[in-house]
Specification:
- This protein is an alpha/beta fold.
- About 40% of the residues lie in helices and about 20% in strands.
- A hairpin with a 6-residue loop joins strand 13 and strand 14.
- The termini are far apart.
- The protein binds ligand G4F.
Length: about 350
């Protein structure tokens, strides 16, 4: 019989890639989504899988709804990708973020414990838990130092996963994923914000400079399509565990801008300092980037770089897409999309 998988957060970047991956493996896929008045299924349509998924109403804050869904379908695997995932917003909505990203995971684990204890559970944990990193690179053993309400809530969920594994024998895995991007990335995240805006400038659809915050923080950026395979691999192993998923390379926001600019014929030179800094195209003299303090965070995560050697050794996983290829994929997609 086909295996069944339930994916919460089906409408997000990772939900689309994971659903496509599991459908190719002949899974029956249940996609859990939060009702909204706008069309949130555009990614599933772009992946051409919208009609192949059973979509179910779901809300991480509604325990009765979670219990009903788990009890009725008792899936073989549950991938919890649902969250308030925008770090910046978590300072404005700390209580909601904690409810959804922390308590929501406890609700899921309780429902599994009560109604479907054989369901294997994957939790989308995050490199943000390392925050003000105390070690470089970060591994599964690196102590955590969360720097945002988002990271604090995710840390609670991470430990709940470990605790339900050890206390109740639930097969729960925590994937500590470093930043992962793609042409399906939400437009509020920095990489996609940059590629969309530069593509619009290139296609002369706008004249306005792109406003950004801290250009010097560094992230370990991988490709989301590579990372969903690892979510699945964790649940196929004999033992549940925690895994860091990363490329092992780090780049600043500035590096990302330079790399994607090459495809837009911009040669950016930086002028000014701190809040007054600007990125100017040497050829045209036009201002392409402006630093704007509204995009700075109350506490920043300055440097993330992961060591995924455990994933390589135990699950034979390695990322395929390199930083340069990721930049190229994203900017070419957005040049094409904005042109249309
Ligand atoms: O793209 P970001 O918003 O991603 P962030 O905060 O690293 O978090 C993402 O990755 C995590 C790890 O997988 C996930 F857990 C999380 O859910 C999310 O997917 O910001 C990256 C960096 C930050 O240092 C930020 O300060 O870019 C800097 N930045 C500079 N200007 C900006 C901007 N970020 C955004 N979103 N917008 C700006 O204008």
């Amino acid at each position: 019989m086909n295996k069944s998988a339930m994916i919460s957060g089906i409408t997000g970047q990772d939900g689309g890639y994971l659903a496509k991956f599991l459908l190719q493996k002949n899974y029956t896929v249940y996609g859990l989504y939060r009702r909204a008045s706008n069309d949130t299924f555009f990614r599933l349509k772009e992946h051409e899988i919208f009609d192949k998924i059973t979509l179910l109403d779901f809300d991480l804050l509604e325990f009765t709804n979670i219990c009903r869904v788990i009890r009725k379908y008792q899936p073989d695997e549950f991938y919890n990708l649902a969250a308030q995932s925008f770090v910046s917003a978590s300072w404005e909505e700390p209580l909601y973020t904690t409810q959804a990203d922390g308590m929501g995971v406890l609700y899921l684990l309780e429902a599994i414990r009560e109604f479907s204890p054989k369901t294997k559970f994957y939790q989308a944990s995050t490199s943000e838990m390392f925050g003000k990193a105390v070690e470089i690179p970060q591994t599964e053993k690196t102590p955590f130092y969360p720097r945002s309400p988002y990271a604090v809530a995710k840390l609670m969920a991470h430990w709940a996963c470990v605790n339900y594994r050890e206390s109740f024998n639930i097969f729960s895995c925590s994937g500590i994923l470093f930043n992962h991007e793609s042409p399906m990335r939400g437009e509020e995240f920095v990489t996609r914000k940059i590629t969309l805006h530069l593509a619009k400038l290139y296609n002369k659809l706008t004249d306005a400079p792109l406003k950004l915050g801290n250009l010097d923080s560094k992230r370990d950026w991988g490709f989301a399509g590579d990372y969903v395979e690892m979510m699945w691999k964790m649940l196929q192993n004999d033992n549940p565990d925690n895994y860091v998923i990363a490329t092992g390379e780090t780049h600043s926001i500035r590096d990302f801008i330079h790399e994607v600019s090459r495809y837009c014929n911009f040669d950016i030179e930086w002028q000014g300092n701190n809040e007054n800094e600007k990125g100017i195209d040497k050829k045209s003299g036009k201002t392409i980037i402006m630093v704007d303090k509204q995009f700075f965070r109350p506490a920043e995560v300055d440097l993330l770089i992961g060591n995924a050697v455990k994933a390589k050794e135990i699950l034979s996983w390695e990322p395929k897409v390199k930083f340069n290829d990721l930049c190229k994929m994203m900017i070419l997609h957005d040049i094409d999309k904005t042109r249309k």
